[in-house]
Structure formats: structure tokens, C-alpha cells
Amino acid sequence: IALIRICCSHSRKPDWDPYCNIMSAKEKEWIIRLQMIQLQSENPNLDDYYYQEYYRRMEAKLAEEELGMRGKREPPKLTTPYVTKTESYTPVVHIEGSLGQVAVSTCFNPRRAIDAVTAHCPHEELKDLRQQRLDVLKKIEKLFMVLLDVEEGQRMKAHVLGEGEESRLMERTQRKVEYIFSQFQNPCPLEAGDEFLPCLLVSKGKRLMARLLPFLSRDAALKVLRVVTFHLPILMSRDTDESLPVLYPPLRTVIGAVTFSQLIGVLKDFTASSPDSSDGSDCLSLACQSKFGLSLLYALLSQGERLLSSDVPLEPSIGDFETWTDTVFLVASQLSQSALVEPLLLPSNLLTLFCRYLDKRTVHQLKKHPNNVLIPPFCCLPTFPHFSAQVLVSVCFLFISFICSIFI
């Protein structure tokens, strides 16, 4: 067999092509013409720069060698068939998911045949959401390391001897606190109040903010309070692990330091209608079903009552007292219609607040829901084992009716 192959190889012509019978002469001519058309270009210096530069250099070299005798021997050039000038090309691959599809004018514009477009599918959007959550968790982890240094510096403050060293330590601590507060905000918020929202939706972010609040300035802490009250519905709806109560102690401290005008601004955010609801009491109804929301509402009302009953000048803005009165009536109306949960902390001056503003009609409305409204304000009262719950509720009714009749 080897001998036969050797004989056959010697018998073949040297220019024999093993692929000569695959395509006919007509098909070869068609392929060659198509390739030549693809090489056609309206701007060869831009589309075929290297080819044109090669021929330019070759012509210059021949001109130098022949000393001006170039006309005797013309160098070979590529001649393409004439093609009519086409209209301005418009890429057709603008539809999502069409990457790789052949365009109509591929043979005339081979370099523009594929126009890469970014196609978004639900799987990629879900992946983007996971990546955003992962980025938020990484940021919180880094900020926690800085917060640990801040807390360590606060503990070292008691052991500092000199005033100069103490001032330097306070400056370093303040810079770190400002850095955490700036990094805690969303770099590209969609709205003005969404800057803390991505971190507050994470359980670890709530704990970070709860530990950071005591170190913040009064304005920064008030800003955090307003963000929490404005976005309270979405925070409560996504609080699956019930980690919102960790924010209550530091926020209650912030509420205790606000002025009357600032308190009115926070209450406006609290009672403002959510984007998904046309009723302004929607946020209040949701707050009454959450321990954190109801406790935050009680703390705001308690601070307002404390400011009004104190001798400190309030310096209110125009319309603050009207807004305060409307808010108290709105809260009382919502409390009379909602099934309340047990709050985290019940202020002792809420009874005085409601008795100051409630009329007899509202008292009768509250009597219809004794288990929902009247029991929470009297949770701080001592229990009497010899009396039934119905007797205690009746005593509460008589006490509130008596006080309201005096004020009215």
C-alpha cells in the first residue's frame, strides 16, 4: 500500500489541487466577486489604513529605486468592481437580544455588521440587585471597623492625661465620625431623602446607625431621624428580622433634644402620605401596627407635650401650633380605629396630652375601643388583683370624662 501511494504521488502533477472539485468555476467566481465587493470602501484611508499605507510606502520605495523611471513599470494594484454609492448606513442591530444576527448590508460594511448592544433580562436585573446588596454589606463591614476605632477612642478619653492629647484625640474621633456619616449616605440617591435608605434596609446597617447616632452632631442626627420617619413604611415592611427596635433608644435621645419647629417638621414627615397611598393616615395606620413605629410616635408626641408645658420659649414658626393641633387630632382619630400593639416604652405625659385636646365626642369614640386605645396609656398604672379588667376600664372612662369636662 505504501508503494502504491508513493507511485501515485509521483504520478500527480506538481500544481495539482486536492480541493479543485469542491466548488465549480461559477461558484469560485461568485465568491471572489463577493470578497472584492467587501473590500470596496468609500473611505479607504480610514477603513483600510494599513493596506493603503503599505502601498504608499511601496510606491515611494520604487520611486527612489528607479530614479523617476516609475512610468516604465507600474506596480500592481487591487482593482475592485464598481459599486454604486450606498445611502448612509444605519445599524439594524438595535433590538435587545439580536447580537450576532446578520445585517442586510453586511457585504458592503463588514466592519459594521455587528453592533453590540446591552440586553437586560430579569436574571441580570436580579444579579444586579444581589450585587448592590453585596456592595452595601461590604461598605457596612468597612464602616464598622472605623466605628470600632471611634468607640475605642471614646474609651481612651477617660485615660488621657494632657489637654493637648485629649483635643487631638477628639479631632481624630470627629474626623472618623464624619467619614462614616459621609460614606453611610448613598453616593447617587434617586431622591433627596434616599441617601441612608440602602444601609437602613439591612439589619447590620441599622445596628451601625444605632451605634453611630450618639457620636453625630445635632443636625446630622436630626437628618437621620427625618429619613427614618419619612421612609418608615418601607422600613417596617422590610424589617423581617425585627431589628428596627435597636434604633429606638438613640432616636429617642435625638427627639429629646429637638426644638418645637424641628418637631413639627418631623411630624409632617411622619404624617405625610406615602407614594403608594392617597390617604395621609396610611403611615400612621402602619405605625400603629409596629412596636417601633408606635413607640416613635409616642416619643414625638411626648416631646411636644414636654416643650409646651415647660417654661422654655418655643420660638415657633408660622402655623406650627395649628399643625401640632391637627396632628394630635389625626393621631387620636387613628388610635381610635386601629388595633394597637404594645409599645417599647410608654411616656408618662401622654395622658395629659390627650386630655388637653380631646373633646366629648372623641371620648365617646374612644369608649367604643377600650381594649385598643385606653389600655395602652394606662399600662404604667399598678394592677389590682381584686378588681376585674372591666372595672378598671370603667374607672378609666370616668377619669377621662371628668378631666375632659373640666378642660372643656
What is the strand and helix layout of this fold?
Blueprint: H1 2-11, H2 25-38, H3 44-47, H4 49-66, H5 122-156, H6 163-184, H7 197-200, H8 203-212, H9 218-230, H10 232-237, H11 248-255, H12 260-271, H13 282-287, H14 291-309, H15 320-335, H16 350-357, H17 360-367, H18 370-374, H19 389-407
Keywords: Cytoplasm, Membrane, Nucleus, RNA-binding, Transmembrane, Transmembrane helix
Family: Belongs to the PAT1 family.
GO molecular function, one term: RNA binding
List keywords for this structure.
single chain; about 400 residues; mainly alpha
Task: Explain what this protein looks like in three dimensions.
This protein has 408 residues and is mainly α. Among the domains are: 91 residues; 152 residues, no CATH class. It is elongated and about 115 Å long. The protein starts with a helix and ends with a helix. It comes from Esox lucius (Northern pike).
